[in-house]
Amino acid sequence: MDIQFNNHYIVIDSASNIVDGFSDAFITPQPTDILINAEGGYQFRLFPGGEANPLLLNEYGVPLYFWDGKKAQERTPKDIEADTPTPILPTPTLEERVTAFEDAIIEISSAGDYQMTKFRAIQVRMGNSKLEDFPARQRRDIESEVMKHA
């Protein structure tokens, strides 16, 4: 029984950073792709015995490895940081996030109250409910809504 191997390739950018990697089990290589392993399995591995289908870019799309002309090398944290884009908007603090969340909850609950008031007003207009059926604190809002559509 013959052992079947797959070729593993990388794609580099103009600065020799590795921006993609694949096995020819799934993708047809282009002439510019670099063969790094002619006896690989169907899963791409950047290093022999390494992780299958490793992350080659960080969460910002910055390459984590570069091609030195012979083999893949890890980029230094300094190089990665230099290529990391600055956020368009500053990251909100935990306090700002909590405040925004609380404001959203208040807005949602207020919208819910208004919708419920409209629903109750419709019930009163249709004769399915009486204004007196509702608590005194809600009657004014329901009556106002009923009058809008009278």
In short:
By secondary structure, the chain is of the alpha+beta class.
Oligomer state equals single chain
Order of adjacent strands in the largest pleated sheet: 2-1-3
Rg: 31 Å
pLDDT < 50 stretches:
none
Report the sheet with the most strands, covering strand number, pairing sense and barrel closure.
3 strands, antiparallel
Coarse shape: elongated
Tell me roughly what share of residues is in helical segments: 25-40%
Number of strands: 5
Please, what is the average pLDDT? 87
Straight-line distance between termini: 87 Å
Strand content: 15-25%
Describe it for me?
The chain is α+β, with helices and mostly antiparallel strands and 150 residues long. It folds into two domains: 78 residues, no CATH class; 55 residues, no CATH class. Helices cover 35% and strands 17% of the residues. The protein has three helices and five strands. It is elongated, with a radius of gyration of 31 Å.
SSE topology:
Layout: E1 6-12, E2 18-23, E3 34-40, E4 65-67, E5 72-74, H1 77-83, H2 94-126, H3 136-148
Antiparallel strand pairs: 1-2, 1-3, 4-5
Helix pairs in contact: 2-3
Features:
150 residues, alpha+beta, 2 domains, 3 helices, elongated
